[in-house]
Design a protein that fits this description.
Elements (H helix, E strand, L loop, with lengths): L8 H10 L5 H11 L6 H9 L6 H17 L7
Amino acid sequence: MVRVISISDEVYFELSRLKNGLSFTQLLKTLLSECTLKGDAKSILTFLKTQGTLSEESAKNITDLLEKTRKNAVARKLN
Protein backbone atom coordinates (compact mmCIF):
# COMPACT_ATOMS: atom_id res chain seq x y z
CA MET A 1 0.00 0.00 0.00
CA VAL A 2 1.28 3.47 -0.87
CA ARG A 3 0.83 6.45 1.45
CA VAL A 4 1.20 10.10 0.57
CA ILE A 5 2.99 12.30 3.10
CA SER A 6 3.78 16.00 3.13
CA ILE A 7 7.19 17.31 4.11
CA SER A 8 8.73 20.76 4.06
CA ASP A 9 10.92 21.80 1.15
CA GLU A 10 13.90 21.88 3.51
CA VAL A 11 13.42 18.22 4.47
CA TYR A 12 12.73 17.25 0.85
CA PHE A 13 16.03 18.85 -0.27
CA GLU A 14 17.95 17.08 2.50
CA LEU A 15 16.44 13.71 1.61
CA SER A 16 17.01 14.30 -2.12
CA ARG A 17 20.65 15.08 -1.44
CA LEU A 18 21.08 11.86 0.55
CA LYS A 19 19.28 9.38 -1.68
CA ASN A 20 22.11 8.64 -4.17
CA GLY A 21 19.94 6.68 -6.59
CA LEU A 22 17.72 5.13 -3.92
CA SER A 23 13.99 5.62 -3.85
CA PHE A 24 12.66 7.77 -1.03
CA THR A 25 11.19 4.62 0.51
CA GLN A 26 14.57 2.86 0.45
CA LEU A 27 16.30 5.92 1.89
CA LEU A 28 13.78 6.30 4.71
CA LYS A 29 14.06 2.58 5.54
CA THR A 30 17.85 2.96 5.72
CA LEU A 31 17.65 6.07 7.88
CA LEU A 32 15.19 4.42 10.22
CA SER A 33 17.23 1.22 10.49
CA GLU A 34 20.40 3.23 11.28
CA CYS A 35 18.58 5.29 13.88
CA THR A 36 19.58 3.98 17.31
CA LEU A 37 16.62 5.62 19.05
CA LYS A 38 13.75 4.55 16.84
CA GLY A 39 10.86 6.96 17.00
CA ASP A 40 13.15 9.75 18.24
CA ALA A 41 12.92 12.52 15.63
CA LYS A 42 15.91 14.32 17.16
CA SER A 43 18.24 11.41 16.43
CA ILE A 44 17.12 11.29 12.78
CA LEU A 45 17.67 15.04 12.42
CA THR A 46 21.08 14.73 14.09
CA PHE A 47 22.01 12.04 11.56
CA LEU A 48 20.86 14.21 8.66
CA LYS A 49 22.90 17.16 9.94
CA THR A 50 26.08 15.04 9.93
CA GLN A 51 25.79 14.56 6.17
CA GLY A 52 27.23 17.99 5.29
CA THR A 53 25.90 21.18 3.79
CA LEU A 54 24.24 21.32 0.41
CA SER A 55 26.12 23.48 -2.11
CA GLU A 56 24.39 26.52 -3.63
CA GLU A 57 24.55 24.88 -7.07
CA SER A 58 22.97 21.65 -5.80
CA ALA A 59 20.26 23.58 -3.97
CA LYS A 60 19.46 25.55 -7.13
CA ASN A 61 19.35 22.37 -9.23
CA ILE A 62 16.98 20.74 -6.75
CA THR A 63 14.79 23.84 -6.57
CA ASP A 64 14.62 24.10 -10.37
CA LEU A 65 13.72 20.42 -10.69
CA LEU A 66 11.10 20.71 -7.95
CA GLU A 67 9.48 23.72 -9.63
CA LYS A 68 9.47 21.95 -13.00
CA THR A 69 7.94 18.83 -11.46
CA ARG A 70 5.25 20.83 -9.69
CA LYS A 71 4.34 22.67 -12.90
CA ASN A 72 3.90 19.33 -14.67
CA ALA A 73 1.92 17.72 -11.84
CA VAL A 74 -1.63 16.66 -12.54
CA ALA A 75 -4.19 16.76 -9.75
CA ARG A 76 -5.81 13.43 -8.97
CA LYS A 77 -9.57 13.13 -8.79
CA LEU A 78 -10.74 11.86 -5.43
CA ASN A 79 -13.79 9.66 -5.24
